[in-house]
Amino acid sequence: MNKKNVTILLLSNLIAMFFCIQTIKSFIGSHYALEGIKLSSIHDYSSSMLNYRKALGFDPGSGRIRYLYGAMLLNAGRIDEGITELEKTLKGFKDIYLYNNLGRAYLEKKMFDKSRYYYEKALQTGIYYLDAMNNFGTVYLQSGEFDKAIDIFSKIRYYNGDHILAIENLGKAYLLKGEPEKAVECFRREVELAEDKTEALNNLGIACLNAKDYAGATRSFEGALKIDIKNTKAYNNLGSVYYKKGEIRKAISLWKRTLQVDQGNEVAKHNIDEAMRH
Asked: Could you give the C-alpha distances from 253 to 12, 239, 245, 260, 274, in angstroms and in order?
């Protein structure tokens, strides 16, 4: 075998060895990433983080692993670190879930422009991922752009009439816009769909209260208390109904019930102080 052939053979062997090593490193990286996923699912974020870091040590160029690591950091409440990892991922790994997580992270930080930007990118993928649309609507809801929020939540209902989060958010948008009657309609549907109806009944009661339907508000808050006798929100809200009706003693007795359940409840304390002045 001549010198040239020997050189080519050695080079071929080195290339094959390189790809073999890279394959092994990717395999080990995937193993640690899988462990990270398992640990994250049981909320052991510290151990999950260690496994993801090991995974990236073996396979630093994997956009998938870096995306999973960033999403785990968001779930662990480490928002800034999560954003850093997810934005690194943008260089080579782009899909609706990545955009959705970045939108969620910036929404958590109340950076509405950036949140809106990433949710728009998610929608531009052409995949009508309804939870992403719902989060996009939440950006408008929290930034006070109620008409835009209503438009998005209404579109979600067009695609899935039983999307409970969109129905609840649509009701909140109508309520904040000053249209409580439309909010009542949404929250009635939420009560029908909800497995745990306590929160839905509280939402319905607040909408009825704003619509001056005191009988409907009373039924809703009493319904919530039948499910959860210690629901302080329902006691406070039911007290507000009686206060609006001019039944001050009844209102105060309900706020005192709140304090029996939660001695430090600031809403009940404030309401009692206000009522005692009148």
From this structure: 86, 8, 14, 11, 14
Q: Structure tokens of 200?
A: 């839905």
* Cα torsion 244, 250, 252, 257: sign: negative
Identify residue 192 by its one-letter amino acid code: E
Q: Are 217 and 254 in contact (CB under 8 A)?
A: no
The structure's pTM equals 0.71
Angstrom distances, CA of residue 36 to CA of 44, 143, 173, 211: 9, 35, 38, 49
Average pLDDT of each block of 10 consecutive residues along the chain (278 residues)?
A: 48 46 63 81 88 84 84 92 91 79 91 90 77 88 94 91 94 97 97 94 97 97 96 95 94 94 93 86
Yes or no: say if 143 and 137 are a contact pair by the CB < 8 Å rule. Answer: no
| Gap between the Cα atoms of 69 and 57, Å rounded | 12
Tokens encoding 179: 């249209």
Tell me what pLDDT residue 13 has. Answer: 46
Please give the distance of CA 85 from its chain centroid, rounded to a whole number.
Answer: 19
Alpha-carbon span 162 to 104, nearest angstrom: 22
- How far is it, in rounded angstroms, from Cα 222 to Cα 45? 40
Looking at residue 77, its amino acid is G
Please state, in angstroms and as integers, the Cα–Cα distance from residue 88 to each residue in 60, 92, 130, 242, following that order.
Answer: 11, 8, 26, 55
Listed in sequence order, the residues at least 6 apart from 70 whose beta carbon sits closer than 8 Å to its beta carbon are 82, 83, 84, 85, 86, 88, 89, 101
- Rounded Cα–Cα distance for residues 83 and 103 (Å): 10
CA distance 207 to 123: 31
Residues 97 and 125 sit within 8 Å (Cβ to Cβ): no
